[in-house]
Amino acid sequence: MSLRFASADDLTWSSDERIALEHANPRFGAVFSDHMAVATWKAGEGWADDAVVNYQGLDVNPGSAVLHYAQEIFEGLKAYRHADGSIWLFRPDQNGERFVRSAERLALPTLPVDDFVNACVRLADVDSRWVPEPGDSGEKSLYLRPFMIAYQDFLGLAAASTVLFSVIGSPVGAYFASGVKPLRLLVERTQARTARGGTGEAKCGGNYAASLRSQIEAKKRGCDEVLFVDAVEHRWIEELGGMNFMAISKDGQLVTPELAGTILRGITRKSILEVAPDLGLEPVERKIGIDELLGGVRSGEFPEVFACGTAAVVTPIGSFLDGDTDVQVAEPTGKATMEIRRRLLDIQFGRAEDTHGWLKRVR
Ligand SMILES: Cc1ncc(COP(=O)(O)O)c(C=O)c1O
């Protein structure tokens, strides 16, 4: 039976003034909407207790498996307000399918895609007042964070027997506080984020914890983000800490690392590969060596390079720091990059026709 995520009887609501204040200057993931969708799962019983309740602390004991063994997965998607006031999600079924794959990898129970999508729709509907107008940046939205944790109070190392699923929401503006400014990337040739056979393709917290030390180093060295390479040969480009990587060649190829189990199957990545032909670009998924890339950036073979993901949409890359060598990108806010960015945002915010059928109406 499908989960309904009906509203609890005791929901409380923020004032219009408070919401307007938070919408004026949204801080990514720092403020949360009034409510959350929840459901629990028990081995032998399945999913139950689905509801939309007030945003509140979780009943997690110190012995909970998630705290010790990182048995946890999450997702990220956004609710967009269109000019007519309607609210939409972008390809939530894709997030739901990835959530199933992540759950399987982390020995968590799977949540049917329809239930996942319904939980997101219900929270965005109940908290529709928290979905901002797109604003001057044209990018404000309500970020939804579905997640699942194993919270049985038991230190034995075992698959989850008690699980909590939840969706929370946070109003967001542009991911990078300074707006669309080309990123400077630190090339990380030593510390890997994930490895073949590991959990790179799953969206689980451990992958992100493993990337933080490199991220700190990047900041110290004046970079915004880290570009990770593979864990074996330390030369094949993988992705950034929280975004996929793409380069545009001077003859119109849109090149991105192939999916080999170590990088996240980004939904933005997939969508860009699907719209690329409409923009006159040929999508190519293949291995890209870091030396080939940096050589191609220097020679002009790759005049444009960018990162992509739900949070930042499409963000141009302006330079790389590889050891002590600085490599500048020829066209850091290049025409093709900005066109891809605009195309995606226009579909998400209803400013262009959704010819692919990617949007799911909330209300
Ligand atoms: C490691 C990583 N790669 C790529 C992405 C981009 O994925 P998506 O486009 O589905 O947001 C994300 C963000 O979700 C991520 O965390």
TrEMBL record:
<comment type="pathway">
    <text>Amino-acid biosynthesis; L-leucine biosynthesis; L-leucine from 3-methyl-2-oxobutanoate: step 4/4.</text>
</comment>
<keyword id="KW-0663">Pyridoxal phosphate</keyword>
<keyword id="KW-0028">Amino-acid biosynthesis</keyword>
<dbReference type="InterPro" id="IPR033939">
    <property type="entry name" value="BCAT_family"/>
</dbReference>
<dbReference type="InterPro" id="IPR043132">
    <property type="entry name" value="BCAT-like_C"/>
</dbReference>
<dbReference type="InterPro" id="IPR043131">
    <property type="entry name" value="BCAT-like_N"/>
</dbReference>
<dbReference type="InterPro" id="IPR001544">
    <property type="entry name" value="Aminotrans_IV"/>
</dbReference>
<comment type="similarity">
    <text>Belongs to the class-IV pyridoxal-phosphate-dependent aminotransferase family.</text>
</comment>
<dbReference type="GO" id="GO:0004084">
    <property type="term" value="F:branched-chain-amino-acid transaminase activity"/>
</dbReference>
<keyword id="KW-0100">Branched-chain amino acid biosynthesis</keyword>
<protein>
    <recommendedName>
        <fullName>branched-chain-amino-acid transaminase</fullName>
        <ecNumber>2.6.1.42</ecNumber>
    </recommendedName>
</protein>
<keyword id="KW-0808">Transferase</keyword>
<dbReference type="GO" id="GO:0009099">
    <property type="term" value="P:L-valine biosynthetic process"/>
</dbReference>
<keyword id="KW-0472">Membrane</keyword>
<dbReference type="InterPro" id="IPR036038">
    <property type="entry name" value="Aminotransferase-like"/>
</dbReference>
<feature type="transmembrane region" description="Helical">
    <location>
        <begin position="154"/>
        <end position="177"/>
    </location>
</feature>
<comment type="pathway">
    <text>Amino-acid biosynthesis; L-valine biosynthesis; L-valine from pyruvate: step 4/4.</text>
</comment>
<dbReference type="GO" id="GO:0009098">
    <property type="term" value="P:L-leucine biosynthetic process"/>
</dbReference>
<dbReference type="InterPro" id="IPR005786">
    <property type="entry name" value="B_amino_transII"/>
</dbReference>
<dbReference type="Pfam" id="PF01063">
    <property type="entry name" value="Aminotran_4"/>
</dbReference>
<feature type="modified residue" description="N6-(pyridoxal phosphate)lysine">
    <location>
        <position position="203"/>
    </location>
</feature>
<dbReference type="GO" id="GO:0009097">
    <property type="term" value="P:isoleucine biosynthetic process"/>
</dbReference>
<keyword id="KW-0812">Transmembrane</keyword>
<keyword id="KW-0032">Aminotransferase</keyword>
<keyword id="KW-1133">Transmembrane helix</keyword>
